[in-house]
Every structure is written in C-alpha cells, then in structure tokens.
Design a protein that fits this description.
- The chain has 620 residues and is of the alpha/beta class.
- Helix content is 33%, strand content 10%.
- It contains 20 helices and 15 strands.
- A hairpin with a 2-residue loop joins strand 14 and strand 15.
- The longest helix has 31 residues.
- It is globular, with a radius of gyration of 27 Å.
- The N and C termini lie far apart (58 Å).
- The C terminus is likely disordered.
C-alpha cells in the first residue's frame, strides 16, 4: 500500500541540474569538467575563500565567544547599515534621508522571497515580469509567494546571440500599470548580457511613465566588472531618479559565503514616513517564515566592511575573481577559433560575469556530457568559473567536436548550433552544398554572401528551406520551379525584375492599400510599420500580415531582430519566419504579448508604492 507522502506519481523526477550534479559526482573520468553550479572556482578548479574572509574569521576567533542568542528581527543592525552602503553608496541621498529599510535575509534568494511576499501580500501586486530567459529559480520564488500572473519580457536575441533591447522595451511598454518587473542589476544570469547606461536610462523613463514597480536583483555586485561601484550604477541611478523600488542583495558570490546564506532586502521609499510601515510588514513575513536569521555570516561581513584594511583586501579579492573569469572568456574564444569550431564566438567575450549563454543546442550539449564528460545545462548555459587554464583547450575541442557530431556528418548547416546560434558564417564556400532538396528548415540555410549559383533553387525545394537568401539579386530566380504562388511570391503578372523586395523603397510606393493587387509590391524591405500593411482578406502567402495583427509587431522589416517580429497570428512556419536570412523560432504562447494598449502616463513614481500600505501600525 502506498504511503501518504508518495503523491499521485510513481516517483519524483530529479531536475536536470540535480541529475547532472549526481552524474558528475559519480563520474570517474580524469577529464570531467563541471560547468553547472553558480559558484566561483579558482584556476585549480577548487573553491576559493577570499583572503579578506579568512582574516575576518581569524579576528572573530579572538573576540569573546558568541552567546548563541536569537538575532534581532530583520538581522544585525550594524551589518544592515554597512550592507546598504555597499549597494547604495556611502552618501546615498536615500540613506541620508532615512527612507531605506534593509532586512537581513537568507541569501539573495531569501531576499527575493521576502520581497515577493511583500509585493503580493502587502501591496496587492498581481503581475510579475521576468526577462526571457532568466534564472530558473526566479519563477519558483514568486509563484510560491502567490503570484499567478507571471509574464516575460524579451531580453535575448536568439539569432544574434545578443541583447534584444527593442523587444524588452516593447514588452514592458505593454505591461499593465502596477506590474512588478524583475531587473538584474549586473552580470545577467543566464545570458551574461547587461544593459548599457543609456539603456538603463530609457528603462527608468519607461518605469516612471508606466508606473511599474522595479525589483532589482543584485546577486553579482563586483563580479561583473571587478568594481563594486560600477556594477551597481543602475541601482544608484534609480535612487537619483526618485524611483521607489526593491533590491535583493547577496554576499554569496562576492564574499564566497555560500553556506552562510547572507543577503539583504532593501526597500527604497520616497519618504521616511513610509519606513515604519515597511518594517512592520517585513517583520511579519520573517516571523512566519523562519523567525530570525543566523549570526556568523553577518558578523564576518560586518567585520570586513567596517575595517578599512580588510575592506581594501576584499576589493582586491573581487578584482582577482572577476579578472580570472574575463581571462577565461578570452582564452576560450581564442581556443574555439583556433580549433575551427563552427560559428562565431564573439559573444563569449561580449558577455560578462559568471555565466555564458553559449548557443549550443541540446543535442550538442548531450555530446558534451556523454562523450567528453563536460557537464553543462541543455540550454547551453556555462559557468565560466569552471573554465581554467588547464582545461580550456579541452573544452574548446569538446565544443567543436560536439557541434560536428550533432550534425551526424551533415557538415553543411551545423545542426549542432541551436536556433539561438544560427551563425553559419558569411563566405561559406559554394561547395558546401548548403541548400539540398529536403533539408529541414532548422538547418540554417540562409547564409549571407552565398553566390546565386550555389544550388539554391532546386526544383521542388520546400517553402521553408531556402527561399530568401540574403544578398540574392532580385532577378536571380526567386520563383522556384513548382513553388506555390504564396510561397515564392509570384505576384500577379509582376515580372521577376519588378522590384518586389527592394531595400529602401519609400513607404509611399506600395503600402498595401485595401484592394491593391497582389502584384503591387507588397513585401518591401524597410517599409514602416504604420504603412497599412495588414489588409483584410489578404492571403497568407501573398502578404503575410494577417488581419488583426498589431502594428507594433513590425513584421517583416529588413534587419529586424528575431525577437522584434515574431507574433504573427496563425501564420505558418514556412511562410513568415525568414526575416532577411535569419531563421526565426515561433514563440510559445506564453511568450506572446498581445496587449499593446497604453495604460496611462505618470510623471514619476513618488510615494506610489507605499501609499498602498495599511496605516495600522507605526514603529518609531
């Protein structure tokens, strides 16, 4: 008879991460490499405790022994003040004006959890936005706090292995008022792609205009650039702008205090009068969760932060850790290029911080794990701290061979590179037989620079295989023999040379006015989104801009990033995904945001959050 804890399933399945960690631990290969966990490793591949932490712990040993009593509610007061200064700055106006509440938490994850419960239970916030992709634990924390309306804003450009800032801004522009938005302050997990300062300024504008509620996740301060102040510029800029926000802070990475679970939740209000109310509610959340936090980690951190010599040593330790990671990025990229790994690898050095989103496909990652004992997540995320001067060449060779093996000998289109690394280089020789009849759409056919004579127009080639090769002259036989009217753009009566796909054609030349014949030059690259492209009744194959599609989706404009143009209502995969040579994955329904309505404008967020707090209890 089954026990009551067995549940409905026969057994609980392990998560991918825990299963891979188990496999790594039992792997007896001398060449095994662990690129999974978000923890720093030194060049010998072993954990490294920063010297400043060792010195602080030695000094604590000389102090009077602890009496092991409960900590105060919300943690050690001295530590909380010092930690607030680390993220906000010594002379932060928010600190000087007494409008910051800082609670010591169980690591950065505990800060996220406390903040999520505060948003949901106290401020009645119901919608939360995360970047796509984001750290896999983010959603778990917020749904456990009660959030059910979980949404995502575009962040990663699948085609370019780069930041999709336009997509991010479009999705946040469509966010309902009062939505919370999780923003990673630096060293984005998992992509390693951070916003520029100018982009942060534009995000701040949008947050104030749309009355969104920012929640900064600051887990890697110092780890991105090696400079504590530089890495939290976005947090301090939001203070400067007068924006109210929450911030989750962690000392796991930059002090190496992983097992001490040391973090803070900061709530930055617009007025000091709000803070007693915030304190009351955070204490209630803490009491219901774990009563009080542990002591040793905060004593260690406080000793470092209040001692000038120890603090300088800590800053040198941070610079050493971040500097090693940057060197490994450079060496890995160089190694990949030297062994001829298919694809472009500039994104390895463009990214920053602990993680790299490599762009490897799940199939290639399988070969990495099974054939080369290099353990990483199927998403292609790699912890760069696991790369050392001793294994970097081995990892580079493993990546190259895994990509080639994933193609099963089909060396043409590097099927081992995922749709997110569809790099298939410019200048590939014509002899590579790229567009063979019957090749799947996922094989990345649209190589920039391929000559028109490179066997592109095979009789009977499927629509999705190789129609719109970037750089093909307009007269070079776009009308494949046997291709249907909708697939190959044989517009009524228009000759091949009639300039159907001309770059730079003015928006006034052929806008798709209702009733325009299909031969009137519908798909002009560069046409503005407002030029009446969405004609009622136009066939899918002829104009691909189905009736009802929002104008903000900016469908097939030349040069548009993959993330900027993919929400086509009902359009078939073969008809609409070849945006100027980039194979675009159709998003899942959970990624499609259809609400483009403006939800109101506010000049700023001043006192927006805490006006919603109950006025029940005041703590002086």
């Amino acid at each position: 008879m089954a026990g009551r804890f067995q549940g409905n399933g026969s057994s609980a399945s392990l998560t991918e991460l825990s299963e891979l960690r188990r496999r790594y631990a039992s792997d007896d290969s001398d060449q095994k490499v662990e690129l999974l966990m978000g923890a720093y490793r030194h060049d010998d591949g072993l954990p490294w405790v920063p010297p400043a932490v060792r010195l602080a712990e030695q000094q604590l040993q000389e102090d009077a022994p602890s009496d092991h009593q409960y900590m105060p509610f919300l943690g050690d007061k001295e530590f909380r003040l010092l930690a607030s200064r680390v993220v906000l700055g010594q002379n932060s106006p928010a600190l000087l004006e007494g409008r910051v509440v800082c609670a010591q938490t169980l690591g950065g994850t505990g800060a996220l959890s406390m903040g999520a419960r505060f948003l949901h239970q106290v401020l009645n916030c119901r919608t939360i936005y995360f970047s796509s992709p984001t750290w896999q634990i983010h959603e778990s924390v917020f749904t456990a706090a009660g959030f059910r309306d979980v949404r995502h804003y575009r962040y990663w450009s699948a085609s370019g292995l780069s930041l999709d800032f336009r997509g991010m801004m479009e999705d946040l522009e469509a966010a309902p008022r009062d939505s919370a938005v999780l923003l990673q302050a630096c060293a984005h997990n998992p992509t390693g792609m951070d916003l520029s300062r100018d982009q942060w300024r534009r995000v701040a504008d949008l947050v104030q205009e749309k009355k969104l509620l920012p929640f900064m996740d600051c887990a890697y301060q110092g780890f991105a650039s090696g400079d504590l102040d530089n890495d939290v510029w976005p947090v301090r800029y939001f203070v400067e702008r007068g924006i109210e926000f929450l911030c989750a802070q962690s000392f796991s990475k930059n002090m190496g205090l992983y097992d001490e679970r040391l973090g803070c939740l900061l709530v930055v209000a617009s007025h000091a009068a709000s803070c007693p109310h915030v304190v009351f509610h955070l204490e209630q959340i803490e009491l219901a969760a774990y009563l009080t936090v542990p002591r040793h980690g905060s004593r260690t951190a406080a000793r470092i932060l209040r001692d000038a010599e120890l603090c300088q040593q800590w800053k040198r330790d941070i610079a050493a850790m971040s500097g090693r990671v940057r060197r490994m990025r450079e060496e890995l990229r160089r190694g990949l290029e030297e062994v001829g790994a298919p694809g472009s690898w500039s994104h390895i050095t463009d990214q920053i911080g602990m993680f790299s989103y490599t762009g490897l496909s799940p199939e290639a990652v399988k070969h990495m794990v099974n054939d080369y004992h290099v353990y990483m997540l199927s998403s292609g995320r790699m912890n760069m701290c696991g790369v050392t001067s001793h294994n970097v060449s081995y990892i580079a060779t493993a990546i190259r061979n895994s990509i080639l093996r994933a193609t099963s000998g089909d060396a043409k289109h590097l099927n081992g590179l995922s749709a997110s690394n569809k790099k298939l280089q410019n200048g590939t020789s014509a002899g590579d037989a790229k567009h063979l009849n019957g090749m799947s759409p996922g094989d990345a056919k649209h190589l920039n620079g391929m000559s028109t004579g490179d066997a592109k127009h095979l009789n009977g080639m499927s629509t999705g295989d190789a129609k719109h090769l970037n750089g093909m002259s307009t007269g070079d036989a776009k009308h494949l023999n046997g291709m249907s009217t909708g697939d190959a753009k044989h517009l009524n009566g228009m000759s091949t040379g009639d300039a159907k796909h001309l770059n730079g054609m003015s928006t006034g030349d052929a806008k798709h006015l209702n009733g325009m014949s299909t031969g009137d030059a519908k798909h002009l690259n560069g046409m503005s989104t407002g030029d009446a492209k969405h004609l009622n009744g136009m066939s899918t194959g002829d104009a691909k801009h189905l009736n009802g599609m929002s104008t903000g989706d900016a469908k097939h404009l030349n040069g548009m990033s993959t993330g900027d143009a993919k929400h086509l209502n009902g359009m078939s995969t073969g008809d609409a995904k070849h945006l100027n040579g980039t194979f675009m994955s159709i998003p899942s329904t959970t990624e499609i945001q259809q609400n483009g309505t403006s939800l109101g404008v506010a000049k700023n967020n001043v006192n927006y959050i805490f006006n919603k707090l109950p006025n029940g209890v005041y703590i002086p």
